[in-house]
Specification:
By secondary structure, the chain is an alpha+beta fold. It has a single domain, classed as Beta Polymerase, domain 2. The chain has six helices and five strands; from the N terminus they run H-E-H-H-E-H-E-E-E-H-H. A five-stranded mixed sheet has the order 1-2-5-4-3. The structure holds ligand 0O2. The site of ligand 0O2 has 10 residues, from helix 5.
Amino acid sequence: SEDLDINGSLKEFLLQQQIYRAAIKEIKTKLEILDEEFQARYDHNPIHHMEYRLKAPQSIAEKMQKKGLEITAENIRKNLTDIAGVRVICNYLNDINRIANLLLRQDDITLVRKNDYITGPKKNGYRSLHLIVLVPIFLAERTESVPVEIQIRTIAMDFWASLEHQLKYKGHSDMSEGLRERLKYCAESITRLDEEMQMIYEEITADDCEQQ
Ligand code: 0O2
């Protein structure tokens, strides 16, 4: 009956959600292990903090519609690679590639796509390193390769992206050219801050080495 079918779909949906949550856990643990090793080895934490999210059903539906695809479990699985999302906020600029490379070197991680909006920022000034990776999830009866979107950025980049995201939704109409220019100017100032903080960090830690 239709009732049973709804129960069946719901069950399938919940199982799938659980698999995406498992993928987030795997990535989270891998990154924590790398961060802790850096702390122990070099007395430095590359990661400031992490955030995680499962894409909400409403956003999944909107994205499928935008792509002009029928909303079926299979279509979602094949076409959306950002259902599981991990955001890694790093302390310094150099920590970003360091973390990305150490993660991508791991045998069970497959890189699907890399968008480097740091060497090539978006037109509005947005900067971050985006990776889509596949991570294997070992289930009772099979192993599933699950996509996870990882956004890696500095505290400063995160500050800009969070406020810009809020402002986009606050504005009821399109943002004026003037406002867009000013936001972009903020993004450029933040780039300079990140570079300067990196240099200060390097000079201070170089002094440490000389004193030892
Ligand atoms: P949410 O709510 O964060 O999930 P696609 O993902 O297919 O739509 P694309 O170009 O392949 O598009 O993805 P992209 O641009 O690599 O990454 C999309 C995600 O990056 C967004 O998720 C945002 O989280 C973030 N992002 C990208 N551009 C900007 C930007 O200009 N400003 C801010 N604040 N964030 C950005 P979603 O799906 O839009 O939403």
